[in-house]
Design goal:
The strands form two sheets. Strands 3-4-7-5-6 form a five-stranded mixed β-sheet, with helices on one face. The protein is built from nine helices and seven strands, in the order H-H-E-H-E-H-E-E-H-E-E-H-E-H-H-H. The two termini are 22 Å apart. It is α/β, with parallel strands linked by helices. It has one domain: Protein-Tyrosine Phosphatase, Chain A (Alpha-Beta Complex). Strand 3 and strand 4 form a beta hairpin.
């Protein structure tokens, strides 16, 4: 398999890396605390029976996935999720999520790290139309949470708990291969955990170390400069240090 095509340009914020200012301007898109602090949820139960309405038009240009062309994805979509109650389980006639999707989904959107990598909280994975517009083809779910998987994307579910005893290193090889496979095939990958702050960033940093050969300190600084709200726990940070020593001798 060829190396990731943007390897040599990954550090260049003027090419395919989204600028720090733009990321800071969009912090609220993956910050659950912002959503909870800025909205009143006293009567949120009534919102469980309100539909989420998406009015974004799908823009289809060229083939980008090995299993479905963009035109085929557009044909199959048929506006099926333009009005739903629950993003997690679109077939329901109410929303069973902790925070009703009608309050949350339109306030959350994937954040772009590079041409091929997006990161966000779990709700971003429910926004089928937006993901198709971003030309995302692969979704790496490290939230330990199940939801309806859409037919347009290739999924990898990694069940890694957010605690101080979990072993994440054993998953790095398969997650790195999954991300690299998406990019090498001209696709894009969305990585998400529950709130977009911890586990998803562990696997982003593991990719930078394992496939782009960044040193641990460089990779972590790279992420935190652009995503200051990323907060991998100390257990995962220690594992990333060991992974760097094992990988980049």
């Amino acid at each position: 398999m060829n190396s990731v095509s943007y390897n040599s340009n990954f550090y260049n914020s003027n090419s395919n890396i989204v600028t720090k200012k733009k990321l800071l301007d969009n912090t609220h898109k993956i910050d659950h605390l912002y959503i909870k602090d800025s909205m009143g949820f006293e009567n949120s139960n009534k919102n469980r029976y309100e539909k989420i309405k998406f009015d974004v038009e799908i823009e289809i240009e060229k083939n980008y996935a090995e299993y479905l062309t963009e035109d085929e994805k557009k044909r199959r979509y048929r506006n099926e999720e333009d009005e739903i109650y629950c993003g997690r389980f679109p077939h329901l006639n109410y929303c069973g999520c902790n925070l009703p999707c009608s309050l949350v989904l339109n306030k959350i959107s994937p954040i772009q790290l590079s041409d091929g990598i997006y990161v966000c909280s779990i709700e971003a994975a429910f926004k089928t139309k937006e993901l198709l517009n971003f030309k995302i083809t692969h979704i790496l779910n490290v939230s330990c949470t199940s939801y309806n998987q859409r037919k347009y994307f290739k999924y990898l579910d990694i069940f890694v708990a957010d605690n101080h005893t979990e072993n994440a290193i054993k998953y790095f090889k398969i997650s790195n291969r999954f991300i690299e496979d998406a990019i090498n095939k001209g696709g894009k990958v969305l990585l998400h955990s529950v709130n977009g702050r911890n586990r998803c960033w562990v696997f982003v940093v593991a990719f930078l170390i394992g496939k782009l050969k960044m040193k641990y300190v460089t990779a972590l600084e790279f992420v935190r400069e652009r995503f200051p709200w990323a907060e991998p726990n100390e257990n995962f940070l220690t594992q990333l240090k060991h992974y760097d020593l094992e990988t980049n001798v």
